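Title: Prediction job returns without error message
Component: structure pipeline
Severity: low
Priority: P3
Assignee: unassigned

Description:
Job completed but the reporter wants confirmation the result is attached to the right record. Sequence as submitted:
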Amino acid sequence: MIYVGIDIAKLNHFASVMDSDGEVLAEPFMFTNDFSGFQKLLDCISSFPRDELYIGMESTAHYAENLTSFLFTRDFNVCIINPIQTSALRKSNIRKTKTDSVDTYLIIKALSMNHFRLYTQRDYDSLQLKNLCRFRQKLMKARTRVKIQLVTYVDLLFPELQYFFKSGIHGKACYALLKEEPNPDKIASMHLTRLSNLLNKTSKGHFGKQHAIALKELAAQSVGIKNDTLSLQILQSINQIELFDSQLNEVEGSINEIMDKLDSVIKTIPGIGSLNGAMIIGEIGDISRFEKPCQLLAYAGLDPSVYQSGNFSASRTRMSKRGSRILRYALINAAWQATLNNRTFRDYYDLKISQGRRHYNALGHVANKLVRVIHKMMTDNVEFDLD
C-alpha cells in the first residue's frame, strides 16, 4: 500500500507520500488550493499504482471539499480521517510538535492503522444535499426576517390592512395590491373596477366587488403614517420576499433531483418527503459512521442530558441539544409527520401524552424511536415496515 497524507488549510495544503513499510517516497511539500497546486499533487502521485494508492485527509470544515471532489471524480481512493484520531496520535508523541509537515505523517499513520473510511458516491451526493439544505435554511431565515420587517412597515403605513386579509398580509392578493399601490390614500382613490379586478384575479375569485368597496372605505379612514419612504420600503421588501421564493424553488428543485437519483429507503417512511429526507441524509452522510442508534441520537442532540450530584440523580432531564441543529429539526418534524401518518408512532405519542408529557417532549420520544428505525433502514437498506 502507498499512503498520501494531506494536511488541509485554506490557501495552501501540505502532502507527503509513504509506503506501508514506512519508507518516505515523497517528503512533505506544499501545494496551493487552485488548479496549478492540484496538478502539482497529481504530478507527484501519478507514478504510483492507483489501485494501491490511498489519499487521506482530515474532515475539517469546507476547506477539503474542493480537493476531495477533484480527486474523487478522477477515481482516486480518497479517505476521510477523523481529526480526533490524528489529535490522539499527536498527543502520543514524546515531543509536543504540531506543524503541517508533521501532520501529513500523522494522517498517514492513521491510514496505516485503518482509521479511515473510503469516500463514496453516496458521500458525494450527501455532501451536495447537506450544502443545499443548509443553504435552504439560510434562505428561509432571511425571508422570515424580511417578512417581519414588512409587517412592521405595513403596521405603520396601513395598520387596518391586516384585518382585511384574514390570513395575514403574506398572500398573493395583498402583495399584488401593495405592489400596485403601496399607500392607503392611493388605494382609496383607485377606480373601483380596477381594484375589484385586481383582487379577484390575485385571490382566484375569493374577493369580489363588495370586498373592493370595503377596502376603499378602510383605506380612506386609515390612521397610518403618511410617509412615502414607507411605501418604498414595502415595495423593496416584497421584491426581496419574491426573490427568496424564486431561489427557494430552484434549490428545492435541485434537492428533489438528487433525492430521485438516490432513491433512498428513507422516503418510504410515512410522512417523510424529499425535503425532510434530504436534510436527514445530508446531515447523517455515511450511516456506517454510527455503529449504534445511540450514537446517531447523540449526533442529533436528541439524547437525554445527565444530571447527577452526590446521591442525587435526576430522573427526568431535557435533551442535550448538542449535535446538528438541522438534523434535530428534521427528525422532530419527521417524528410529527410519522405520528400523523402511522398508527404505531401515533400510539406511542399518545402513550407519552397520557404519561403527562407535553407535546414537544412526547415528540422527542417519538423522534428517539424514529432514529432507531432510520438507523436500521439505512444500515440494512430495507424499506419501512412498522405497522
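Comment from assignee: result matches the submitted record. The chain has 16 helices and eight strands.
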